[in-house]
User: Fold this.
Amino acid sequence: GQQLNQSPQSMFIQEGEDVSMNCTSSSIFNTWLWYKQEPGEGPVLLIALYKAGELTSNGRLTAQFGITRKDSFLNISASIPSDVGIYFCAGPTSGTYKYIFGTGTRLKVLA
Amino acid sequence: DVKVTQSSRYLVKRTGEKVFLECVQDMDHENMFWYRQDPGLGLRLIYFSYDVKMKEKGDIPEGYSVSREKKERFSLILESASTNQTSMYLCASSWTGATEAFFGQGTRLTVV
Assistant:
């Protein structure tokens, strides 16, 4: 099935560093969702974005809905060891009930 | 808080067995979904339901069926389990309009 392209695929960073990742699509989305999945668990919704240009924060996480509506960005500031996991972007496809998911960014934080 | 609960975290079943995976949500969501997640393949949609007794095939429905007799409950059925159905199964739900989707904790199924 269709997937959203996420980059980078994986990141190894030092505790305290800031992290940036993005998600791109060839199609326009009206909603962007960001999830975190820890090993052996289901994805947990972090941030939802509904308007082009929107910037939304959730603690140390900040996400932006790209102006073109074809991309979105997630930033994590001052990373800590519990930020480890896989971060997915997702968007509902227009006119259907289905969601398209990103390929995921695997984050590892070194203490 | 939205809660999507899957009945089992881990299951081990034998080839040929009929397997039931249950999912319950407490937010009165119209839409419910079953995905499987495999390394390198991401999340793939098996089936979804937009109302009681209504269902639509996703991208990989072969070997699976579903049941939605009540709004809060969506069951995935493996008619005759095979080893290639060993995977992480994720249930999700959302309101009509396909806004945020909320996931359960996942069921790791191993077919031996």
Summary: The CA atoms of residues 52 and 68 of chain A lie 7 Å apart. The two ends of chain A are 37 Å apart (CA to CA). Chain A touches chain B at residues 1, 3, 31, 33, 35, 40-45, 48, 50, 88, 90, 92-93, 96-99, 101-104 (CB under 8 Å). The longest strand of chain A covers residues 85-92.
